[in-house]
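Input record (one chain):
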Amino acid sequence: QAFVDTEEEAIAACKEVGFPVMLKASEGGGGKGIRIVHKEEDVPMLLKAVKEEVKNCHVLVMKLLTNVRHLEVQLLADRYGNCIPVRTRDCTVQRRHQKVIEEGPVYNIEDEKIKHMEACAVRLAKAVGYSG
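The corresponding structure, as predicted from the sequence alone:
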């Protein structure tokens, strides 16, 4: 199970992942449904906040990474299983977990890493039957 429902499940997952973590609503967007948790005693309050902000969705526990870049691969896929990477973009400039600027293509990354990111994104999209 990739999501948590109860305070107990959330605390156990946070301990397993290791603090600091992010509690993230699966259906969130625009910076909504995300809370950073630094210590165990804050889990119940912040889990409740995520669930109230984005109703009726799963909540995921993710390790909080700092000093990283937010890079994305744009894909084009059809219902026949064909999928290609179209372009990359850097969405690192954010405010309150909301992208402010999307720069494309990604820069200051070795071509081999970009090709690897694209290949991984295509494999994932095909594995879940993505089209769009």
